Predict the 3D structure of the following.
Amino acid sequence: MKHPASRVPYISYDPTRHLLLTPQDDEAPARVARLRALGIGESPLPAFDEFARKLARTTRAPYSMVNFIDERRQYFAGLYTPDQDRAVELGPAPASAQPGRVMDRDHGYCPHVIVRRKALVLEDVCDYPRFAGNPVVDEIGIRSYLGAPLIDRTGMALGTVCVVDLEPRPWGREGLETIKSMAAELVEQIHSMEKQHSDAP
């Protein structure tokens, strides 16, 4: 007999941990097709790495990502770490991926952002039972998260931009507005990339 919680829509439930886990992402197949058409989300892009660096500096956060999510995994096409020459290991990566750029879909908080289509502020993840049990807390030591969705001109949530810290951070209203503004800036950059690609002979 199914656990009653398994009938709750849009979320999964792990009865061994009694925690709400990664939300169901019905838009993933359409998102993958859109990302493929844009030519992003499968490999690192210098422009996205530079954007991640800018985001980290703007928010004074040690880690920053431009994250694209499919049905099974998350891919950091843009990544900034405290030691940029040594990518932080965030999860099992296939041989074809650059180390540190791949993370399981049930790790972290970006999958929640992309399904909610709204920015998410977690000043201390341990204050939120729904998020405190996420694997990144124990495996990486993440204590604070700030992320916003990348919603393009078609209305598709392509991915997220986010910053994380190993210490609680009082992001506040300023942090929320900053991450939303930075997400909008990157969406415009993606639109420019799309236009250049369509105008190319």
About this structure: The two ends are 59 Å apart (CA to CA). Confidence is low (pLDDT under 50) at residues 1-20, 85-89, 91-99. Helices lie at 28-38, 46-59, 110-116, 129-132, 135-139, 172-199.
